Amino acid sequence: MPNDPHVPFPREPGRPDQDPIDLLLRRTYLQLRLGIAIIAFSLPWILWLGGLHAGIPLLPSMSAYYHATHDFQSPSDRPCPQCESKSPTCCNQTEITACKTNSALPQGTLEPWFVGFLFAVGALLFVYQGLSRLEYWLLNLAGAFAIGVALFPMPWVEGSRWSIHGTCAVAFFVLLALVCVLCSGQSLTLIKDEDLEKRLRSAYWVLAAAMLLSPLTAAVLNALGRSHTHFIFLAEFCGVYSFGLYWCLKTYEFSLIRKRGRSPAEAVEPSFIRDRR
Hints:
Blueprint: H1 20-53, H2 93-102, H3 111-127, H4 133-151, H5 164-183, H6 194-223, H7 231-259, H8 270-276
Helix pairs in contact: 1-3, 1-7, 3-4, 4-5, 5-6, 6-7
C-alpha cells in the first residue's frame, strides 16, 4: 500500500499496513518524552549563559536566578537602610536584619525562563500517562512539585535553612527516582536480551541514585552554611541532567523494543487501561 499523501508522516519501512493514526500517536509520545529531556538539558545552560549575557556571574544555585539581576545584592551585602553601613553591628541588628530581608525583591532577569521551564516540565509530566497506575501517580505528583518549585521562589534570606521551594525540589527528584527504581523495569522484559536488560536496569538505578543524591547534597550544603558556593549549582546540574538522561534512555529502550517486533504498549498494566477508559 503506497503512502497516503494526506498523512503528515509516511509509514515506516517494512510496515505498509500500519495505521497512520497509530503512527502519529506513537510519534507524539516520542516527542513528548524528548521534549521533557530537551527542557532538562537546556535549563542550566540558559540560566548560566543567559545570566552571563545579562551581566550576572555564575550563581551558587539555579534557584538564585529567580531573583538575580545585574546589580542585585544578597541580603548580607545590602547596606543598612538606616545608616547605609554594611557592618553587622550597626544600629539595632534585629531591626536591621528584618528590614534587609523583608524589603521588596526585584524580579530576576531570568525569572521568566526559570518559571516557564518548570511549568512546562510540570505540565508535560501531567500529560504523560506512563505504563502503570503507580507510574501515572508518581509522575503527576512530580509535576505538581515542579510547579511548586516555580510558584514558591527561593527565600533570599541570610541563614535560611528550610523553605517550601526546597521541599518541592527535593520531593520532585525523589518521586522521579522512585519512577526509575519501581517503574522502569516494567517494559525491560520485552527486549528479550538478558545482558542488555541488565545494563539498562543498572543504568536506571545509577540515574535514580543521582537524582536522590543531587537534592540531598544541595540541602546538606545549605544546612552547613555553604549556600554561597558553586557546589550547590553543580549538584543541581547533575540532578537535572540525570532527569533528562532518564527520559532519553527510556526512549532508547522503547526503540529497541520496537526493533524486536514488540510494542512498549504490551507492558501497560491491564487494570490501568480499564480505569482510563
